[in-house]
Amino acid sequence: MGTGHQLKENGNPGRISKENRDKIKNSRTEGRRYTSEVKNHLEGVTKSKPSNGKKTNTVPQVNHKCRTTNGNSHPLDLFPSGERLKELDMAYEGAMDLLRILDEDGVNRTFQSCRSVDEFQYLYRIDEGSFGTIHGAKDRRTGEMVALKQLKKINEMEGFSIAARRELGILLKMRHPNIVAGRGIASSSGNEHVFIVMELVDYDLKTFMQTMKENKQMFSVEHVKCLMTQLLSAVQHLHNHHVIHRDLKTHNILLSNEGVLKVADSGMAREYEFSPRQYTPDVVTRWYRAPELLLLSKEYSAPVDMWSVGCIFAELITLRPLFPGRCELDQIIKIFVDLGTPSDTIWPGYSALPMVRDIVFNDYPPGGLRKKISRNLLSEDGLSLLQDLLIYDPARRTTAAAALEHPYFKEQPVAMEPAMFLKSPAR
């Protein structure tokens, strides 16, 4: 085999069809096609009529209007209706759960009311993502500092995206000290703009680590274990409730002045079934993306989050990203160089993955992790945990619950208490 990574078509290295070349160059095509199919389906559902000229209504309408004091409609009315959601597949069950929660006895039990955004004082912009802009704000009523996430509309006809509805549903259902809590919903006059009100947390981990790096500081072992136990606890809670986050990275992990870690940004999250099923592979930021996603598998589940946790673990230790790929193909190669090129022996079904059918990868030996992270930074038990998180085969990759019981967390020095996190000096 040569030194380069060869493309193959029908067993002939170096040749590839236009169809497969396009597939390799743009792994996001499937996600866009799926979005288009959903939109077309929604339009078809809206226009479909039976022979008697009346609209079909095979699924009972869900009354998701929250009562308001001024008699106006609730901003959730701007989301797709229960009937249209039901016409989609099981991917939208999380949104239906939200409607059921909101409609229990006609009372929104978690978000007690929809407030006017005028009750909040804008202070500064925190971030802007594909699903909305986040501002730091002050609650004029209570004086509390909060985060306001303005939700983006698809368009005036469709209202807000399914992703926005999923995020609302997850904020309603997830109650855990290491997951950012939703506080309510706010809207502008006429519901033109709708916001999720969330707790405001002091730092994001990415910026925090950049500052440490600039100051030539490193986390101690006690610091790393403190953060990892909290992160794993949050992920365990998500998975116990059948939710995949699908975008775990240092930028989406927040840290309070009390040393409490909070997993944030559920915009990509979704509910899942125990057995893997087909979803779009265009999820998770590239540096933290599991190999099954990089190789374009549409069947995946909670193990994709565990791979991301492994990448974050290594980054906490070194303050450098573990696999900083420049593109999807470079990302795959960087993983193979450090972990070894997989095979059907260690990863059943590997050779049948779409990207593997089209590219001949060089045969790299395993063992690169220890070369990147020395023993004075990570013990043998720590390396064992990292390897468990980065197992190629998703079926064998460790779970959050199992990781929390790993000997690494029991060996000395143990994790410090969160309250000591910012008070204890770094290395």
From TrEMBL:
SMART domains: S_TKc. This is Protein kinase domain-containing protein. Residues 16-46 have a biased composition (Basic and acidic residues). The lineage of its organism: Eukaryota, Metazoa, Ecdysozoa, Arthropoda, Hexapoda. Belongs to the protein kinase superfamily. CMGC Ser/Thr protein kinase family. CDC2/CDKX subfamily. Residues 120-409 form the Protein kinase domain. InterPro entries: CDK, Kinase-like_dom_sf, Prot_kinase_dom, Ser/Thr_kinase_AS. One of its GO terms (biological process) is regulation of mitotic cell cycle.
